[in-house]
Design goal:
328 residues, 5-stranded antiparallel beta sheet, 11 helices, 10 strands
Length: 328
Amino acid sequence: MDICRFVSSKAVRKYLEETGYSFNTLEAAYLIYFCKGLTLKEKHNAWKEVIETMPDMSPAKELPHCSWCCFEDSIHDCLKQHMENEDRLVETVSAIKEGAFLGLFYDSGGGEWSKCIATDIDDIEDKIAMEISKDYYGVIKKIEVICKSNKHNKEYIVTKNRNGEIMSVSTEMDRDTIEWQIEDMWFDIPTPFKKGDILIDPDRPESSGFWDGPFVLIETAPEFYKRKGRKGGCDFSDMTAFGYFQDEKGRLYDEVMHDYLSLEYYPEKELCGYNRTLVALSRLVKGEIDEVLFANAYDCILLQEQAKEVLPEMYTEETLKQLKILEK
């Protein structure tokens, strides 16, 4: 079974394929669960293939350092139970025709784009279709429908893609076994990334907020735990990378970002504005330049960008040159 196809990062996927990395059953279940873009049907088909083609494993025995919760003895049984629960939820939600419906639309960065409300299934579907039809630039990436049946005292949450395909289904209060099982796992999956590489999480564009945009890598979580003499992290939230980021004014700060398996290389030629300082920072971290050269490069680029921000607006470039504000 080709597990590499479920790795989000193209760079990591290529590296794992080239090195012939062999995934175990727990890693396969984990990667399918967190794979971005997979529909619910595609996830179920992939898990069924795992059950049919890969040996059963016990999370409780194989991942003792992750045992925050009571792991089951069979990942196969967990996957089967989870798929049955989700199929049952899909049937329940499909039967809800009247109630309270809230549609939320999200962009690629996870920010809420717009929302709509309705009292029956036909109305909410029409409003969702209308919202998608108005989205000429493809901003909307995910639709979340929260519905509460008149007959049930539960809220059901259905996540769909732009094509209306179900990505996930759950209830507000309930979490079944597989969610606890998978989200309490941690793995040391190798990557090609080295200290000083300039990387980015494509799902966190430069306008999304904290630890967004390109950054200079310090180390990934597996490297950190090996250095500390530990076996690994406790759960999926420890699948992280540490690095140097920049705010909107170019000021540097160190931070931890989640899901190092989603990272991609960021081409130096595409760095612009304040982010140009990351080239010198990358060279410093790799030991290719000294602190003095970095400090001068950083200072020079910041001053250049700050000068651009104080240029008089609403004047042509030729006028600015005539006034010697800009050099010819």
